[in-house]
TrEMBL record:
PANTHER family: DYNEIN AXONEMAL INTERMEDIATE CHAIN 3, DYNEIN INTERMEDIATE CHAIN. It comes from Hydra vulgaris (Hydra). Keywords: Cytoplasm, Repeat, WD repeat. GO terms for cellular component: inner dynein arm. It comes from the Eukaryota. GO terms for molecular function: dynein heavy chain binding; dynein light chain binding. The keyword Protein biosynthesis does not apply. This is WD repeat-containing protein 63. One of its GO terms (biological process) is cilium movement involved in cell motility.
């Protein structure tokens, strides 16, 4: 087994499902926030993404606008709303390495999106045999992410190796997994926290090949995502062109049988 579980005495703390795993605040992050606290937000992006229980992704701007009809200040309408999954979305997370790439997990599938691409995902998995319950990007590998399932197993995907199936699947618990969170302990050790519906926290150690990035991995994975985005754009353009042609009326088309009938009538 490539991922080893850290065996420690189990302590029953709670019976409720583990929904989120948080680490202690980073001192650098705290100092950064304090430095810019109270400054104006003119240069801050005010747009955000929302995932719903109906499997939709909504891209919204929280800055209010003025209604043209009443002149009153109202909430901005959604920039776009996409049907992303066939069930509740449990994960909505930006890539820590590649700008505008988003991981979503919901229903029986996971998907990768480009923020400004409104046609659909640049990659979507085939429906799994069981529902997917959580997901998280690797903090050190641009092409690696972890997916939790309700059957108690996790899938580790490595797009640098293959994209049609997980690089590794491993059973962790008999209960549905509700949260996964990888974190770097040191330069030589990376752990994966896995929470389940029974309130148990499992700690796994990530092997070196899934935590150490290869040379220019960011560039390789980014180029792959760009190719997939171009493919989606091209497919959408072809679909639009085909649809428009199908809707065009046929002009100057007279059935031959009707012409023959008219000539026969004149004779």
């Amino acid at each position: 087994c490539l991922i080893s579980e850290q065996h420690q005495p189990k302590k029953k703390i709670m019976e409720t499902p583990v929904q989120m795993i948080l680490r202690e605040p980073d001192p650098f992050e705290q100092s950064f926030k304090k430095k810019f606290e109270g400054n104006q937000m003119d240069s801050v992006d005010t747009k955000f993404l929302v995932a719903t229980e109906d499997g939709e992704i909504v891209y919204q701007d929280w800055v209010p606008t003025k209604s043209l009809d009443t002149g009153k200040t109202i909430s901005s309408p959604p920039i776009y709303c996409l049907d992303a999954h066939d069930g509740k979305i449990s994960t909505l997370q930006w890539s820590p390495f590649i700008k505008n790439i988003i991981l979503t997990v919901g229903g029986w599938t996971f998907a990768l999106w480009k923020k400004d691409l409104t046609f659909g995902p640049i990659f979507q998995s085939f429906p799994h045999q069981c529902q997917l319950s959580s997901g998280h990007w690797s903090p050190t590998r641009p092409g690696v992410f972890f997916i939790g399932r309700i059957d108690g197993s996790i899938d580790i995907w490595d797009f640098l190796d293959k994209s049609h199936e997980p690089f590794l699947s491993q059973n962790v618990t008999s209960a549905p997994i509700t949260a996964v969170f990888p974190f770097q302990i040191s330069k030589k050790q990376q752990l994966l926290a896995v929470g389940d519906e029974l309130g148990t926290l499992h700690i796994l150690e990530v092997p070196w090949n899934l935590k150490n990035a290869t040379v220019n991995e960011v560039g390789i994975i980014e180029a792959y995502f760009e190719r997939e985005a171009s493919r989606v754009i091209l497919a959408n353009e072809r679909h639009t062109l085909t649809t428009n042609k199908a809707e065009e009326p046929l002009l100057n088309v007279v059935p031959i049988i009707e012409e023959t009938s008219i000539n026969d009538a004149e004779k």
